[in-house]
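Notes, Module 5: Reading structure tokens.

Key idea: the token line is not a picture. It is a compressed description, and you learn to read it the same way you learned to read a sequence, by spotting repeated patterns. We will look at two proteins. The first is printed below with its tokens.
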Amino acid sequence: MANDISEKILNYLEHKDSVDTLELSKYLNEEHQKIIGAVKSLQSLGNVIDAEAISSKSWDLTEEGKEISQNGSHEFLVYKNIPEGGILQVDLLKSFANAKVGFSKAMSKGWISLDKTTGKVTKTTDNICDDVQEHLNCIAKNEHAKVPDNIRQEYKKRKLLQEILTKSFKLSKGKDFTLSVSKPETDLTPEMIASGSWKTKIFKPYNFNALGVLPNSGHLHPLLKVRTEFRQIFLEMGFSEMPTNNFIESSFWNFDALFQPQQHPARDAHDTFFLLDPKESTKFPTEYLEKVKNVHSKGGYGSQGYKYDWSLNEAQKNLLRTHTTAVSARMLYKLVEGKEFKPIKYFSIDRVFRNETLDATHLAEFHQVEGVIADYDLTLG
């Protein structure tokens, strides 16, 4: 079917210098979209035809506009429904669907008046001209020039008119114009070479800039997808991400600074991975370390403490962090060390390590999501 239309287009162009595809659609009695499809096929053959894109605007009546062109404008119908002695505004507005719009327009044109005391609407003139109906009838007859552009725009706002953009092509003969339509070859076959038929064949030009088929590539791991989603949620809520690239931590920051007693079972080797090299950490903020030691041993800040002899050697042991809360402890310490307290919202998503027995539901490492907010007068309400 497409080839038949293509041949008809070529036969038409043989006797014409140029033609618009809209005109051609009417002449060939074919849908415009099918004409466009045939033009695209002809363009793929090379320079058989030249096609220049054209855009044109036209006006058409909406359903409401068509109704007005037949029966009259809303303001005209309002005027028409007012008897000689007048009518109550309430009854007038119930007379037809768009009476409220028509009433407003008729009042602005001075066709009617309203007695606010009695609520009665009366005519103020005996002769009126329904310009809206006349204008819409002109547009329906394609006599757009008789209606000023500002009036058309007003009717468009009233949804009586709609502007239609029509795209078409202006066709003319190309430098390789021919009446015979033959699809160019895309491959040079052994048979063509053996028979020598390639010499008379037309080949489609190679597009060396065309992108090839993308090879199959890797995908994000489901865990990374979840991390990315959670991270975006925290960022959208105004949180800042804490640095969590320090997998090795001291027992002080991992346990003691979080006031986990040194005899707690979680600090045993069967629950935690302790390092042999480097085995211990020695750099701690001295003043803060003494405060942590005193709270463990004696209590303070509302706590009675654990009442035991706190050991620095135990706090110095290095380990693979068992939770990212160790990072939160460091960040909160840095916050209070500043010159002036500033409210903050921190979050972290990263790996932590536990000396678990491996099975179908347990690994020695997993991910922890954590958020912390520091401010005055915070509640959980």
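Here is the second protein, with the sequence above and the tokens below, as before.
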Amino acid sequence: MERIAPLRLAEKWDNVGLLLESPIHRQGPKKVLLTIDLTSSVLAESLTKETSVIVAYHPTIFKGLQSLTLSNPLQSSLLTCAAQGISVYSPHTALDSVWGGINDWLAEGLMNGKEDGQIRALVGEKLNREDGSSEGAEGRLVTLKEPIAMDILEQRIKSHLKLSQIQVGYPDPTRSRSTPIRSIAICAGSGGSMLLGKDADVYLTGEMSHHEVLAAVAAGKHVILCGHTNTERGYLPILASKLQTELRAIEFKDQGLGDVEVIVSQKDGHPLEFV
């Protein structure tokens, strides 16, 4: 995971890396289960699939814990993991920032092929301290070679994220669907604080507060909200492929990790539904 999304790319406020290390070594076949959130359903799934490690994108421990008890659902899940020989790792904003990570995946879904536009950092790039190379950045800015109508962009987003509905804020409802769009500022998850004030035709994220949406629309920006985890979950199969490739590298095969199977949770899902 450190090769895929170096933890040094995570935001200072974040809590990433190995968050729970079980003292119990599970016997038999081993699997790594990928999920956005460690819910009770995902935990139950992990117990039936001979899981040794859960890679939960969102940190299962974010702030300091004063106790670990079974009365708290999340803490109960962590205690169960420890007792059952399951460790928990979280990449969170390191996976957002790294080139080829979640934000790039979101950006690529807005274009009709790689030659359709340019993807670059929305906020300052993160440089490697040793050689000065760019390793990632906060957010992404997509600039299309040719403008497209707003309704075409909406369809591309719904197709890429496999959603039937998204929420859209229009600065001018009278000509909303036909407005030409050329630049889209992107932040996976909750992007209000990062997106506000940026120069782009559209702000695309999972969620923003009511007042953040009002401020953006008043500033003449289109706002597209897809649901927090809906902007993240579609990347898990890509992460699974990358991690599987790493585990099958020669140095890890020699450590007996070549047979570890990386799977994506079937129980992980967005917590809200349209009814």
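Summary for the second protein:
- The CA atoms of residues 109 and 160 lie 6 Å apart.
- The two ends are 37 Å apart (CA to CA).
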